Amino acid sequence: MGKVVADILLNEQEIKSMVKRVAAEIKRDYEGKKPVLVGVLRGSVVFLADLIRELDFELTIDFISVSSYSGTKSTGVVRIIKDTEQDLSGKHIILVEDIVDTGLTLSYLRALFMDRMPASLAVCSAFDKPDCRTVDVPVEYIGQAIPDKFVVGYGLDYKQEYRNLPYLAILGDDGKEDNNE
Ligand code: IMP
Ligand code: MG
């Protein structure tokens, strides 16, 4: 089946106010602490870009890229493709994610960054699918909880596409058979 945008879950305005709300929470907790916001590539880039422009205090950004654990889903083993570049010891780290699903990636990342002796570690995710969790992992800042549906847009992809949609949409089948071209 081909894929189409079946339903808009959150429109641009709704996402905008979600970002403002999360930014206000982060500002309240981190102003003056010069946090490092670490974006998890690639899904978090749109959210990170919007979020930091709502944070009017000193901060830095960095990025990490990890492989998907497809094939090893049960183990939660994640491979680092690109690591962060700053020395993170003694820093206040905020990991920025696009979405938390099973929680496996995040629990791996939390352990990884805790080993780097930060002053503190917190996670901020644009979206959350709480019904899909298989491991219990704390997420300190959540933009919006959503139902157990596959979503795209606002940075999230299906086979690397749809990341540029300015809204969050549910992806559905178009009813046509794929013709293996
Ligand atoms: P987890 O380890 O199962 O929590 O997986 C989290 C990662 O899977 C996210 O950072 C996304 O990259 C991807 N993911 C999970 N759910 C979705 C979705 O509905 N749409 C697109 N990507 C998703
Ligand atoms: Mg991701």
Portion in strands:
25-35%
- Small molecules bound in the structure, each named once: inosinic acid, magnesium ion
Please summarize the sheet with the most strands. Answer: 6 strands, mixed
Number of domains: 1
CATH-level-2 architecture: 3-Layer(aba) Sandwich
For the record, give the distance between the C-alpha atoms at the N and C termini, rounded to a whole number: 13 Å
| Helical segment count | 3
The structure class reads alpha/beta
- Which CATH class? Alpha Beta
Give the low-pLDDT segments. none
User: What proportion of the residues is helical, as a percent range?
Assistant: 10-25%
Radius of gyration based on Cα positions: 17 Å
Strands, count = 9
CA-based shape = globular
Describe the structure in your own words.
This protein is α/β, with parallel strands linked by helices. The chain has a single domain, classed as Rossmann fold (3-Layer(aba) Sandwich), CATH 3.40.50. It is built from 3 helices and 9 strands. The protein has helices at residues 12-30, 45-52, 104-114, and strands spanning 3-10, 36-41, 60-66, 80-82, 92-100, 120-128, 141-145, 151-152, 168-173. A 6-stranded mixed beta sheet has the order 4-3-2-5-6-7, with helices on both faces. The protein has a 3-stranded antiparallel beta sheet with strand order 1-9-8. β2, α2 and β3 form a beta-alpha-beta unit. α1 crosses α2. The longest helix is centred in the N-terminal third of the chain and has 19 residues, at 12-30. The radius of gyration is 17 Å and the shape is globular. The model has no long low-confidence stretch (mean pLDDT 93). Inosinic acid is lined by residues 43, 97-106, 150-152, 156.
